[in-house]
């Protein structure tokens, strides 16, 4: 039986499952990073709704959002860890998995604190449509990320997560990887944005009408070209954004430092802590640690009905 609160043991077990031969580029790290981000990126600072509490993707209302397509794989990958450590909340597990994955792929250490709670039904979940749409451009990025409380520099730093992983035609409609080595965290994304000759490629898919593609000098003709989303490319078409793209392309240490800070901020969205760093579920009560029961070990549709929650704190409501 695992020791309650032993997050170091959880970290080790997350690390141990990251390399998976049959999946994508042999690594589940990128999709875990995307899970942590989508679990947090629903936050709205004006209404104080959404954010990394809740683990709302367990419910159809959020998990079935087309913006979250593909993340059922990430959730199922970490399910055996939830089984082994049933006391951990999904919202802590999903955010911690992203942080551990980034470090393990050569990225920076990211400060992470426990204490997020799982919702026991879908009533507190934010509406769909709060995550960014890759087919748009800089105005849209500002609209979405300002709502979460980020500034221009932070938007560019966060976008650098696209050093990792790939797009899947059956998930987002876009296809391909941003960099040549998509399981190694670096500042390559910014360098390629500035250096390569990007060309528009029609995809003619709903939600993903076209994307940018380019090849690097060492590539063969039948190699899959590198890609950029319209939103990625728009960072070079805006003076304030481009300034940061250039800085991060030149200075990987600066990028790692800023990325660590901004990712830590991302996974804290909607989480309140007292002066000792202990999470409060709202401003009135010190929330208890509400951990939802384990789910299925195979990918499937998210639940429509509320799940039972253990360690229920009836006062712990937003
Ligand atoms: C700036 C606005 C953003 C847009 C429009 C966007 C859009 C996308 C899209 C369309 C995909 C492909 C999904 C698929 O087909 O599997 C993707 C993948 C990914 N995104 Fe973003 N994203 C954004 C920001 C972020 C941020 C802030 C992070 C993390 C800090 C992030 C991390 C990732 C990762 C790691 C993947 C690869 C997932 C995989 O390999 O399965 N993205 N993103």
TrEMBL record:
It is an enzyme of class 1 (oxidoreductase). GO terms for molecular function: heme binding; metal ion binding; peroxidase activity. Pfam families: peroxidase. Gene3D superfamilies: 1.10.520.10, Peroxidase, domain 2 (1.10.420.10). This is Peroxidase. Belongs to the peroxidase family. Cytochrome c peroxidase subfamily. Residues 88-280 form the Plant heme peroxidase family profile domain. It comes from Meira miltonrushii. Residues 289-318 are annotated as: Disordered. Coiled coil: none annotated. The lineage of its organism: Eukaryota, Fungi, Dikarya, Basidiomycota, Ustilaginomycotina.
């Amino acid at each position: 039986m695992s020791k309650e609160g032993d997050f170091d043991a959880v970290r080790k077990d997350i690390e141990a499952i990251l390399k998976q031969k049959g999946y994508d580029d042999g690594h589940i790290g990128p999709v875990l990073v995307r899970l942590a981000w989508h679990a947090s990126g629903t936050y709205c600072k004006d209404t104080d709704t959404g954010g990394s509490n809740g683990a709302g993707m367990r419910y159809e209302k959020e998990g079935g959002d087309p913006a979250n397509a593909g993340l059922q794989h990430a959730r199922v990958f970490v399910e055996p860890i939830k089984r082994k450590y049933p006391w951990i909340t999904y919202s802590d597990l999903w955010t911690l998995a992203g942080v551990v994955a980034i470090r393990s792929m050569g990225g920076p250490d990211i400060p992470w604190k426990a204490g997020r709670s799982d919702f026991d039904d879908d009533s507190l979940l934010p509406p769909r449509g709060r995550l960014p749409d890759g087919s748009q451009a800089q105005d849209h990025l500002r609209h979405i990320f300002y709502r979460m409380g980020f500034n221009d520099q932070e938007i560019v730093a966060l976008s650098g997560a696209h050093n990792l992983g790939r797009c899947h035609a059956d998930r987002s409609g876009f296809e391909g990887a941003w960099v040549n080595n998509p399981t190694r965290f670096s500042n390559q994304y910014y360098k390629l944005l500035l250096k390569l000759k990007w060309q528009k490629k029609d995809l003619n898919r709903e939600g993903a009408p076209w994307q940018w593609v380019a090849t690097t000098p060492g590539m063969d003709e039948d190699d899959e070209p590198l890609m950029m989303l319209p939103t990625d490319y728009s960072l070079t078409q805006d003076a304030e954004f481009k300034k940061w793209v250039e800085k991060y392309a030149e200075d990987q240490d600066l990028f790692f430092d800023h990325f660590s800070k901004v990712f830590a901020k991302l996974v804290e969205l909607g989480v309140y802590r007292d002066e000792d760093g202990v999470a409060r579920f709202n401003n009135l009560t010190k929330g208890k640690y509400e951990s939802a029961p384990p789910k299925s070990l195979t990918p499937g549709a998210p639940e429509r009905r509320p799940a039972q929650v253990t360690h229920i704190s009836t006062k712990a409501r937003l």
